[in-house]
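hiii so um. not sure if this is the right channel but i have a protein structure encoded as tokens and i wanna go backwards to a sequence. like what aa goes where. can anyone help
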């Protein structure tokens, strides 16, 4: 209040985190924040990441897949109007960057969720190549794209390399 800052109550979310077994024992009553009361949510959004009660990031994967397929549908309508290189740049900037955003946190994501994210990558590669072939490996190789598990491993390896060689922020190596 001394700095004239106020809470924006429409954006405040509260989540109780626990295992699935103990979820029923968590309080469901509203929590008082300042002058208002906020009900606990099942899923919250923080810095573009959707988090659920067990921090498994299933909602994050679902929202990412849904958003990427919506963008792919829009891109399909302009595919004939753009050159190959321009269209590839559009797909990379609108789809691949969404999939890569903070993907190190997806290291322990269940295989079923990784497959859903991989399906977005496969659809993007097929859209760029204007192909409907069943085998995706040659398309991904032609674009020099890694599969989702390999992308996650690469991100984690880069993070560890930066920590070991003092190239990361001070709080990460600890």
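sure thing!! here u go:
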């Amino acid at each position: 209040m001394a700095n004239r800052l106020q809470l924006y109550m429409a954006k405040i979310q509260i989540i109780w985190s626990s295992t699935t077994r103990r979820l029923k024992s968590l309080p469901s009553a509203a929590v008082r924040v300042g002058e208002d009361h906020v009900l606990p949510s099942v899923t919250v959004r923080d810095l573009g990441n959707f988090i659920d009660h067990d921090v498994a990031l299933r909602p994050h994967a679902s929202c990412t897949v849904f958003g990427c397929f919506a963008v792919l549908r829009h891109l399909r309508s302009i595919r004939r109007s753009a050159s190959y290189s321009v269209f590839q740049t559009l797909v990379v900037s609108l789809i691949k960057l969404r999939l890569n955003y903070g993907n190190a946190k997806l290291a322990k994501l269940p295989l079923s969720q990784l497959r859903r994210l991989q399906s977005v990558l496969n659809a993007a590669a097929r859209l760029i190549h204007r192909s409907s072939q069943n085998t995706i490996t040659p398309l991904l190789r032609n674009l020099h794209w890694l599969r989702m598990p390999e992308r996650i491993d690469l991100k984690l390896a880069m993070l560890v390399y930066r920590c070991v060689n003092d190239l990361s922020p001070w709080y990460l190596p600890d």
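oh and The chain has a mean pLDDT of 88.
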